[in-house]
Design brief:
- This protein is of the alpha+beta class.
- The chain has three domains: 6-171, Beta-Lactamase (2-Layer Sandwich); 214-300, Helix Hairpins (Orthogonal Bundle); 309-453, 2-Layer Sandwich (Heat Shock Protein 90), CATH 3.30.565.10.
- 52% of the residues lie in helices and 18% in strands.
- The protein has ten helices and twelve strands.
- The protein has a five-stranded antiparallel sheet, covered by helices on one side.
- Strand 3 (114-119) and strand 4 (122-131) form a beta hairpin.
- The longest helix is centred in the first third of the chain and has 52 residues, at 6-57.
- GO terms for molecular function: ATP binding; phosphorelay sensor kinase activity.
- Member of a two-component regulatory system.
- InterPro entries: CusS-like_sensor, CztS_silS_copS, HAMP_dom, HATPase_C_sf, HATPase_dom, His_kinase_dom, HisK_dim/P_dom, HisK_dim/P_sf.
- It is found in: Cell inner membrane.
Length: 456
């Protein structure tokens, strides 16, 4: 079964809410009107009762009851919907008006002072009260009945009109609710329209906020932000694809050129061997680049799961400093480590991350400089910084140092066979260990700061 649209649901909810309010208001008005008419009936009966009591209070003796008959007829018989009956203590009827329309005798001993009954399809309300003439040994009983059939007919007609009006209002409110919901959801349709038009060539489109209601602005803002992120990611992906093509084209071009030159004429065995060694270097370089790109692709999809074991970070740094010491001595660069600490992580991944940072520092440190590795515990974080002297890195470049294939100096693209993936891999490794990396550079000093969760 197909579910209702959001517009239809809001229209139905609007109809139910409005119908419920109208129903409650109609029932309340009907109940209050009924109580008001009942109170009017009681008031009319009490007026007749009080007038009768004053009339009986004017008697001088019991024998004067016959003299009150004309006054009683005038008082109780003038109202065509009123019935009256006076009986003594033994139940003998002393007065009845109008004749032939009696009040049921069961109400003579009914404990309730106010009652109602139906007779021949008519509704009547009655009242019983004592009358005590002067000198009487036992009081008389006055029974009054009022025909309120017209009131019942009025309420029946009112109920019919109420239900008819309720049905009409329900239909009108359903249509009105549908129109209101459709008008209110227009921004959602605009979001849908923009979403259907989004493609790789139209990520620059945004939904204008001028006509958007306040309640929907967070949704539209989130959608516009999502488009901005998609646009940025698509640009990065396009640049990444172009960089991959460029990086792979260079060694492939060298392979093709070297092979064509070697095959251009007959050569000695040593020349063939030298050409193959050159081709092997280019193939290894491409293999390393492909491995690095696969590693980054896995990291982007959360497939890099580091092994968790307790590691002495200072021992890991010492091992790498020993490894790079011969290269540093060749460039007249000193290596130094300060501090120590323990972390939990994958030894191979962390060694690779630190190696990338150290090799980057060695590449840009001038002769006679000193690379200092500092390990400092700050609360629950172990902070490792690699400092090296050299030209300061501009802030615009620092923001993109960890992008793939990014180089500050494009002219050094081919130097040392570096593809520009080292710092990107380092950031992925740090993020897989719930850490982060940042770069600080000022006053001829560059510092890479790596933060990892501290292991006590």
């Amino acid at each position: 079964m197909a579910r209702l649209s959001l517009t239809a649901r809001l229209g139905v909810l609007f109809m139910l809410a409005l119908t419920g309010v109208l129903l409650a208001a109609g029932l309340a008005v009907q109940h209050l009107s009924r109580e008001h008419f009942i109170e009017l009936d009681r008031h009319a009966l009490h007026e007749k009762l009080q007038a009768s009591q004053r009339l009986f209070g004017s008697l001088q003796g019991r024998g004067d009851l016959a003299a009150l008959q004309p006054q009683l007829h005038a008082l109780l018989g003038a109202h065509q919907d009123l019935r009256a009956r006076i009986v003594d203590a033994s139940g003998r009827e002393l007065f009845a008006e109008p004749p032939g329309k009696a009040i049921p005798p069961r109400f003579l001993h009914d404990p309730a002072p106010f009652w109602e009954w139906r007779e021949d399809g008519r509704l009547l309300r009655g009242l019983r009260a004592p009358l005590t003439p002067p000198g009487a040994e036992r009081p008389l009983t006055l029974l009054l009945g009022l025909d309120v059939t017209h009131h019942a007919a009025f309420f029946a007609e009112l109920g019919r009109w109420l239900w008819m009006a309720l049905g009409i209002c329900a239909l009108l409110s359903a249509g009105l609710g549908w129109l209101v919901a459709r008008s209110g959801l227009r921004p959602l349709r605009e979001v849908t329209q923009v979403a259907t038009q989004v493609s790789a060539r139209s990520l620059k489109e945004r939904i204008p906020l001028a006509a958007v209601p306040v309640e929907l602005r967070p949704l539209v803002d989130a959608f516009n932000d999502m488009l901005a992120r998609l646009d940025e990611a698509f640009v990065r992906l396009s640049n990444f694809s172009a960089d991959i093509a460029h990086e792979l084209r260079t060694p492939l071009t060298q392979l093709i050129t070297r092979t064509e030159v070697v095959l251009g004429r007959a050569r000695s065995l040593e020349e063939y061997r030298e050409a193959l060694y050159g081709n092997l270097d280019d193939v290894k370089r491409m293999a390393r680049m492909i491995d690095d790109m696969l590693f980054l692709a896995k990291a982007d999809n959360g497939l890099i799961v580091p092994e968790r074991r307790r590691l002495a970070l200072h021992g890991l740094v010492d091992g790498l400093l020993d490894y790079y010491r011969w290269l540093a001595e060749e460039g007249d660069i000193r290596l130094q480590r300060c501090g120590e600490g323990w972390v939990e992580g994958d030894e191979g991944m962390l060694r690779r991350a630190l190696s990338n940072v150290l090799s980057n520092a060695l590449r840009y440190t001038p002769p006679g400089g000193c690379i200092v590795v500092r390990i400092v515990a700050v609360d629950e974080v172990l902070r490792l910084s690699v400092e090296n002297p050299g030209p300061a890195i501009d802030e615009a470049h620092r923001a993109r140092l960890f992008d793939r294939f990014y180089r500050i100096d494009p002219a050094r693209r081919e130097e040392g066979g570096q593809a520009g993936l080292g710092l990107a891999i380092t950031r992925s490794i740090l993020e897989a260990h719930r850490g982060r990396i940042a770069c600080e550079s000022a006053h001829e000093l560059t510092r890479f700061v790596l933060e990892l969760p501290r292991q006590h």
